[in-house]
Amino acid sequence: MKLSVVYKSKRKADTYLYVEKKNAFDRVPEVLLKQFGPPVFVMYLAIEKHKKVAGIDSQSFVTSIKDKGYYLQMPPAQKNLLKTHRSELGLDANIPTRERDE
């Protein structure tokens, strides 16, 4: 596999779907496509020119597409800034809720 086709999601920010051929969604689970929304074509990607693709080594990427028919790239988990700040201040990182306060 030399090329991959990249699509982005209109529903999920920074979420990308990689498939082997343009509009080849037949092996992508229906539930995933439903949550992803209508795929928006981004580009063709020459895999052999990159050591990493979608944050993983290119060989693992190719294996995933060959085995499953797609690769889903999700955004990294966002850090809870309030929890981090409270922890840095030496406060309990767990934010109290109304139920606990009453």
TrEMBL record:
Q: Which InterPro entries match?
A: YcgL-like_sf, YcgL_dom
Q: Where is the YcgL domain?
A: 2-86
Q: Which PROSITE patterns match?
A: YCGL
Tell me the domain of life. Bacteria
Q: Which HAMAP family match?
A: UPF0745
* Family annotation (PANTHER family): PROTEIN YCGL
Q: What's this protein's name?
A: YcgL domain-containing protein RM552_03680
Q: Which organism is it from?
A: Glaciecola petra
